[in-house]
Amino acid sequence: MELIFLPHQADQKSLKSYYHRAIAESKELYIVSAYLTNWDIEEKLGTHCEEFMMVVGEDFGLTRKAACESVLKWLPIRYKTQLFAAEGIQGFHPKAMFWRETDGKCYALIGSSNLSVAAFSDNHEINGFTAISEESFQQAKAWVLGLEPPQSAVVDTKWLEGYVEAARQPKPSKKGTNGAAGENDDGGSYAVEYVLPLPTDLEMLDSILRARRTAMRAFKANRDDLEKLFRDAAGAARWSPNKNLAFYDSLRELWSMDGGSRFQAKGWEIKGKHGDHRELSRSLVRVLDAPGVERDLVVVREINRMSDIVLETRGSLFTEMLCQFFPSVYHVANSPIKGWLRASGLVRPRGLSEGDKYIYAARHLRTALRRTKGYPAKNLAELDALLWYAEDARANG
User: From which domain of life does this come (predicted)?
Assistant: First the structure.
């Protein structure tokens, strides 16, 4: 292990040089810091970097908006939604960076330095740089990916508008308040208000949620058969129009409005009948088989892949399957979601891929449910039903 002592000694590499190396050479890069007050890295993230994630703490309002804006400006388009604030984590104090270089070797930089000017120059700090094993890298990667929403929040323009910086020295703040906006229990303040629909008619609210939960139970009863249908199609060595139609007929029997398991209204049957169901099945099986902490990455990759081959069912069918199989973390891509994003003032960064747009919405929905104490919908599948109700209510005046 190489030790980096600060203030910087003449015979040592600077701490920043290790960041430059990781940024220039990494194939995968993960950065965590208890707070972020400065980001003046000029080295561009290499095009060979396939995975990136950065999580910063916001306890006591120490993280600075300007530094977050510098990171967002620095990040290439494909990673504009990969900066997170650990607002839902009590006591977030790590200072570390883990990366895999293009030759496959893995490294870690761990120590006492946060991402601040003083921590890289004047403070008395100690950090260690070392090569790590594949097993250790996978453990570190899983730990960092486990910090994704709802444990954290996407740092974007809307988040920065509501985030409250500390004026001077850190000091404990009041305990968090209920509702969609308030203060984090561990001291970081935020004021982003998510607009979640709530029918005032309690009888109507109960009816909506009861119907959605009934549909989820109906799906669960056929889940094993549905999964086998998708796995058989995904693994088929040969595929033909007849097999495609047979799959379509089997899917309609197992997942239908008549059977009570469908979330969506009619319409998919016409558009989806002649889609390539083997390709869709391959994407879904890859998501089903992905480790939980890596599932968002796989979802992005597969939606983008289906977009590239112009598979229309990647929206209506694929995202409902995601919502049905993983109701706590994925939603159905539909017009109510777009309306909700607009109503909450959330503007996705320009240039995002289709997969990144989907995950951007999913992460904000997870954060909204975490923040809104006592909200009747307990997962994204139930929230979907209330969003549909709200859109219908607006449409009907």
Answer: Bacteria
CB of 340 closer than 8 Å to CB of 302: no
- Per-residue tokens: 242: 């007849």
Return phi, psi of residue 95, to 5°.
Answer: -140, 95
Same domain for 6 and 153: yes
- 230 in the same domain as 182: no
Domain holding 292, by residue range, is 202-395
State whether 75 and 103 are in the same domain: yes
The dihedral built from the CA positions of residue 65, 66, 67 and 68, taken in this order, carries a sign that is positive
Tell me if 378 is assigned to some domain: yes
Residues 132 and 220 in one domain: no
- At residue 355, does pLDDT exceed 70? yes
pLDDT band at 174 (very low <50, low <70, confident <90, very high): very low
| Mean local confidence (pLDDT), 135-162 | 95
Last residue of a domain, one of 190, 217, 248: 190
Q: Quote the mean pLDDT of the chain.
A: 89
Give the number of domains in the chain. Answer: 2
Quick one: 357 and 208 in the same domain? yes
Coil vs helix vs strand at 187: coil
Pair 59, 34: CB distance under 8 Å: yes
Beta bridge partners of 26: 101
DSSP of 66-95, one letter per residue? HHHHHHHHHS-GGGTT-EEE-TTSSS---E
The whole-number pLDDT of residue 185 equals 40
> How high is the pLDDT of residue 243?
96
C-alpha–C-alpha distance, residues 165 and 38, integer Å: 14
Q: Is residue 299 part of a domain?
A: yes
Q: Is the Cβ–Cβ distance between 85 and 57 less than 8 Å?
A: yes
Residue range 380-393: mean pLDDT, rounded? 91
Q: CA of 343: how far to CAs of 56, 229, 338, in Å?
A: 27, 38, 9
